[in-house]
Amino acid sequence: MAIRYELIKECKQSGARLGKLYTPHGVIDTPIFMPVGTQATVKAMTPEELLEIEAQIILSNTYHLYLRPGHELIKKAGGLHKFMNWHKPILTDSGGFQVFSLGDLRKISEEGVEFRSHLDGSKHFISPEKAVEIQTALGSDIMMAFDECPPYPADKDYVKKSLERTTRWAKRCKEAHKNTENQGLFGIIQGGMYEDLRRQSAEELIELDFPGYAVGGLSVGEPKPLMYEVLDYTTPLMPKDKPRYLMGVGSPDALIEGVIRGIDMFDCVLPTRIGRNGTAMTSRGRVVIKNASHTESFEPLDPECGCYTCKTYTKAYLRHLFKADEILGLRLLTLHNLSFLIKMMEEVRQAIWEDRLLDYRKSFFEKYGYEL
Predict the structure, then answer these.
(1) pTM of this prediction?
(2) d(CA 286, CA 279)
(3) Distance between CA 11 and CA 354 in Å, rounded?
(4) Annotated catalytic, 29?
(5) Which of 43, 160, 165, 210 has the most CB atoms around its CB within 10 Å?
(6) Is the pLDDT score of 271 beyond 80?
(7) In contact, 152 and 190? CB cutoff 8 Å
């Protein structure tokens, strides 16, 4: 098996899990946040900078890399690790979420999804088998089964049919997946906001015995309390001896709440996206660096952060960079945001080890400005 999970400890105070995830390109300490490198690059960051902030694994996007530069070219280059000079683990999503986000540009059938490229309007077709073929060529450590991600809100009949199709597609992905020694294939639990459908999806996928499972179809516009409610009844259905991955979640509060509910892996474009737009996550809450209040602030962005940005530059200088449209500004805020979340998850792991995760959440939320 390419992927193996070791459960090390459960927090007595919260039930959160501390573990290790073994992959062909290294061991990952969980729970973990994965920076997103959609197009074989984490926007504005070099691989060396990611190593410096102790990123353990990154995510790349099957849909985007299939369209440009093409999975065959990446295969010729020696795979994604070599192509982008990142030699730690990589997870690739199946492209399902991106394809289903295309709306009128796509047409779903039992065989797969026909869609038009958002780049040039050209026609394409991705089936479960094609999704596996693309990800095999990319050479990621973890690949995701091709699933249908229903929108929010969606009526129950539609969600039921959708999750049953996701199960059938998962079976086809498993049958198509041959490179089992070098790549692990995760199943994705769907079912919308319906408890009985989540249970049905989990039971059907667990029967297929994947080495890991994701919770899909959340963080798609639903209120956070509803997302937490779905996690409350979904994660207990998932195997304890396999990694649990919540897709598309990256705000500090949602990461901590997800960990408390038994999640091991997270990814999201949020820290890089808001960083490029001038917003920083700090120990004292969000900072919008473009605000005039920072014009003469010669303090670090976050006095409690040890990242390169906070050790080297002031808020006044960072504001100047953004006001002057200098590329360095978005690089520095991106680096800080990723460093902040990676460091936070390290603190979360330590709190689990010391059986005090609920205390950590209370303290973190108070400082950040979240309400419990």
Answers:
(1) 0.97
(2) 7
(3) 8
(4) no
(5) 210
(6) yes
(7) no
C-alpha to C-alpha distance for 344 and 259, rounded to whole angstroms: 12
In order, the DSSP letters of 32-79 are EEEEB-TTSS-TT--HHHHHHTT---EEEEHHHHHHTT-HHHHHHTT-
Q: Are 338 and 53 in contact (CB under 8 A)?
A: yes
Helix (H, G, I), strand (E, B) or coil at 173: helix
Half-sphere exposure of 280 (CA within 13 A, CB side): 30
Task: Give the long-range contacts of residues 106-115, CB within 8 A, separation 24 or more.
Answer: 108/148, 110/165, 110/168, 112/146
Per-residue pLDDT reduced to its tens digit, 81-109: 999 999 999 999 998 888 778 888 899 99
- For residues 139-160, give the mean pLDDT: 96
**Catalytic residue of the set 93, 141, 147, 264:** 93
For residues 221-231, average pLDDT: 97
Q: Of 23, 31, 80, which is closest to residue 265 (Cα–Cα)?
A: 31
Residue 114 pairs in a beta bridge with 107, 125
**Among residues 147, 264, 267, 302, which one is catalytic?**
267
pLDDT 10s digits, 51-71: 999 999 999 999 999 999 999
Is residue 267 annotated as a catalytic residue, yes or no? yes
